[in-house]
Amino acid sequence: MAVIEEISEFLQKGRAKNVKVLVQQAIDEGYDPKAILNEGLLSGMMIIGEKFKNNEVFVPEVLVAARAMNAGLEILEPKLVEVGNKPVGKAIIGTVKGDLHDIGKNLVAMMLKGAGLEVHDIGVDAPAETFIEKAEEIGADIICMSALLTTTMPSMQDVIEVMKAKGVRDKYIVMVGGAPVNQSFSDQIGADYYTPDAATAAETAKKAIQLKNAS
Ligand code: B1M
C-alpha cells in the first residue's frame, strides 16, 4: 500500500502516532505536501465524516480520527507554510462559541501564516468578547471566524454585534467560513468576506489587508 493510502487508513483508525510517522515518511520520500494533505489526511477525514453521517461510527471514533489529523498536520505545517520576510498583517482566528471543531480552523491558520500573516489563534468555543479583546490587544487587521455547526453560525453574528456595540466594527476586516457557512449568510450578518476553503481564505485575507492599507 502506498504511504499516502496508509496515512488515510491509520487516520481513520485514530492512530495518531502512526499518522505522524507516515506523514514524515511521505515528506522524506518527496511527496508533494498538498497531496499528503488532500489525498492522505483530508481523504481519511472525509471517509470518517461520511461514516459518522451514516451512523457507522460515533463521536469517540471521530474524535480520535480528528486527533490523528491534527497530529499529521503538525508534522506537515512547516512544509505547507513558507512565510515571507515582511508580515502582511495580523489576524485573529478562532472557532466561535459553542463549537469545538478545529481542524478547518487550524488549516486556515496555517495557510494564513503561509501567506505571510502573523496569526493569533484563540482556539475553539471562543466567546465574542475574546475575538474583540484579542484583536484590540494585538492591533489586528482581520478577524477570522470558523463554524462547523448550523447551531453555532449565529455566534458569528454575535461577534459582529458586539463589535458594533463597542464602536469597533469598521476597525477590522471580518472573514467567515466553515462547512455550513455561505455567501448569503455572510452578507446577512454583515461580514466583509466569506471564503469556502483555507487556500482562498489566505489569498483573500492578504488582498483585503493590502486593499485596506492602500485606501
Ligand atoms: Co462534528 N459535526 N459534531 N465532530 N464533525 C460535523 C460538522 C457534521 C457535518 C457531521 C454530520 O452530521 N455529517 C455535523 C454538523 C451538522 C450541522 O450542524 N450542519 C456534526 C455534529 C452534529 C457534531 C456534534 C453535534 C455531534 C454530537 O455530539 N452528537 C458534535 C458537536 C460538538 C461541538 O462542536 N459543540 C460534534 C463533535 C465532533 C468531534 C468533537 C467528534 C469532531 C471534531 C474534532 C476536532 O475538530 N478537533 C467532529 C468532526 C471531526 C466532524 C467531521 C466528521 C469533520 C469536520 C472536519 O474537521 N472536516 C464533520 C463532518 C464533515 O465535515 N464531513 C462533523 C475537515 C476540515 C478540513 O473541513 O472544517 O469544513 P472544515 O474546513 C474547511 C472549510 O469549511 C473551510 O476551510 C477548510 C478546508 O480548506 N473553513 C474556513 C473552515 N473554517 C473556515 C474559516 C474561514 C474560511 C474557510 O475564514 C475565517
- The Cα radius of gyration reads 18 Å
Strand content: 5-15%
CATH architecture of the largest domain: 3-Layer(aba) Sandwich
Q: Share of helix among residues?
A: 55-70%
CATH H-level superfamily title of the largest domain:
Cobalamin-binding domain
Helix/strand order, N-terminal first:
HHHHEHEHEHEHEH
Question: What fold name stands as the CATH topology of the largest domain?
Answer: Rossmann fold
Q: Which strand order does the major sheet show? A: 2-1-3-4-5
* CATH top-level class of the largest domain: Alpha Beta
- Biggest sheet layout: 5 strands, parallel
Structural class designation:
alpha/beta
Explain how this protein is built.
The chain has 215 residues and is an alpha/beta fold. It folds into two domains: 2-82, Methyltransferase, Methionine Synthase (B12-binding Domains), Chain A, domain 1 (Orthogonal Bundle), CATH 1.10.1240; 90-214, Cobalamin-binding domain (Rossmann fold, 3-Layer(aba) Sandwich). 58% of the residues lie in helices and 11% in strands. A five-stranded parallel sheet has the order 2-1-3-4-5, sandwiched between helices. Helix 8 links the parallel strand 4 (173-177) and strand 5. Helix 5 crosses helix 9. The longest helix has 22 residues, at 59-80. The chain starts with a helix and ends with a helix. The model has no long low-confidence stretch (mean pLDDT 93). CO-5-methoxybenzimidazolylcobamide binds next to helix 3, helix 4, helix 5, strand 3 and strand 4.
